Amino acid sequence: MASGGDVPGLIRGLEGIIAAPTAICELDGINGRLLYGGYDIADLAEHATFEDVVYLLWNGELPTADQRAALSGSLADQRAIPDQLVQSLRLYPRGANSMAALRAAIAQLGLYDAESESIDTVALRRIGMRLTAQLPTIVAANQRIQEGRDPISPRRDLGHAANFLYMLSGREPSEGDARALDVSLILYAEHEMNASSFAARVAASTLSDIYSAVTAGVATIKGPLHGGAGEAVMRTLEEIGTVENVEPFATAALAAKRRFMGFGHRVYKNGDPRAVILRAMADEATQRTGDRKWFDMSVALHGVVYREKKLHPNVDFYSASLFAALGIPAELNVPIITIARIAGWTAQLFEQYADNRIFRPRAAYVGPAPRAFPRRGQ
Ligand code: ACO
């Protein structure tokens, strides 16, 4: 098998390769800065809503009050999903992986959208709105069906984040919980040429439809080296079990070359600015609930991994204890990242369709030299 070690011209993992121009998101890995449309993520987390950020990512400017109301109303109006899709969710096997279910459901959603094959600019905007509105409904409905309960219809009078929490539990969330999820969605909404955005762009670059491109994004963000780390972090904390066990567990695991999910990043080498915000939010949320176990374990694990490997936590690390404090089961951590990232994917797909060239890199052949086909019987 090709190892690709010393192949001239090969850049493993396409590290540092610039694959497209974008006006959506700027990622400064050296200084640990992330900006959407020129606005620092910390300012957006403090002052904006997820709906504002969707508008910003799609239009390059923050909305006016009227524009915010129009976009929020449009999302709220389109939250319901087709009955046939709900029936299909009921047929998915119990215990199905939550991201596998979401991948299947999004592919299916396209079948019920009469505009799905259109890549016309205006149609793409309408589809982007529907996808952003409906993903939370799919995730909540699937979760409830998996738990043997009936799905809850979306409410029009709640914001995007609050409505999602409502559809999960049937209870209107507290303002604090709704805002914590809202800010998490902002932090996860977009992240330049990450693997899933690239996958979505590659699919779109063939002029395949936007549902196919988003399905490629979902398939890619599912992996544990990408968004899948969101669930893996909580599974690691469960495996470690107690705060006291963090130090012995982590030092032994690192000595055995274990990779801790939620640490390290291809681009941020001096820390992920989203992790700083999420740590503060997890701290605050767990103070509210009074159950500090996962947060305290996270702080302890952060200390050991940094001390031993000089690795910083990434966005997925403190979101695990934050989401747990919001009463969200760990298997929904990655679907939640996805309902945020749909905003960034669609924004990038609008860019890609508007200025397209098919992605078609090369591979360096390292297999056998040309050889004669063996004669039969020899
Ligand atoms: N735990 C332990 N060691 C790590 C970790 C980790 N999480 N991440 C990197 N390292 C080590 C590697 O073992 C390697 O060490 P070595 O040179 O001694 O072999 C070195 O750091 C460089 O690692 P690479 O894999 O080459 O770094 P790369 O840029 O390719 O990978 C990645 C980045 C995939 C994020 C990596 O840090 C990782 O696997 N992290 C865990 C998964 C994770 O949290 N992913 C979420 C990323 S954010 C997001 O997608 C939403």
Write up this protein.
- The chain is mainly α and 378 residues long.
- It has two domains: 25-219 and 330-354, Orthogonal Bundle (Citrate Synthase, domain 1); 229-325, Cytochrome p450-Terp, domain 2 (Orthogonal Bundle), CATH 1.10.230.10.
- The protein has helices at residues 41-47, 50-59, 65-77, 83-91, 98-111, 121-146, 160-169, 175-188, 195-205, 210-221, 229-240, 243-255, 273-289, 293-309, 315-325, 333-354; strands at 25-28, 33-36, 39-40.
- A three-stranded antiparallel beta sheet has the order 1-2-3.
- Strand 1 (25-28) and strand 2 (33-36) form a beta hairpin.
- Helix 6 runs parallel beside helix 7 (160-169).
- The model has no long low-confidence stretch (mean pLDDT 96).
- The structure holds acetyl coenzyme *A.
- Residues 13, 194, 225-227, 229, 259-266, 309, 311, 314-316 line the site of acetyl coenzyme *A.
